[in-house]
TrEMBL record:
This is Pilus assembly protein. Keywords: Membrane, Transmembrane, Transmembrane helix. Residues 52-71 are annotated as: Disordered. The lineage of its organism: Bacteria, Bacillati, Actinomycetota, Actinomycetes, Micrococcales. Residues 58-71 have a biased composition (Gly residues). It comes from the Bacteria. The chain crosses the membrane at residues 20-42. It comes from Cellulomonas wangleii.
Amino acid sequence: MEIRRRIARAQQSGDRGASAIEWVIITGVLVALAAAVGLTLYNRITEEADAIDIPGAPGSGGGNPGGGDGP
């Protein structure tokens, strides 16, 4: 009898909130948004960091490889 009562109550309650699939969709959208923001930030920071020129730094493509002011 308890099971029948619970089933009847569940069928009569109507919409009591978001279903599991709705939560999955909402979570997926939020994860995609966070990934897009993170990727955008990463790319902008990487571009700015690559634009910094430090003379004599390894891989800078210029300057004196031995350091100092050069001959």
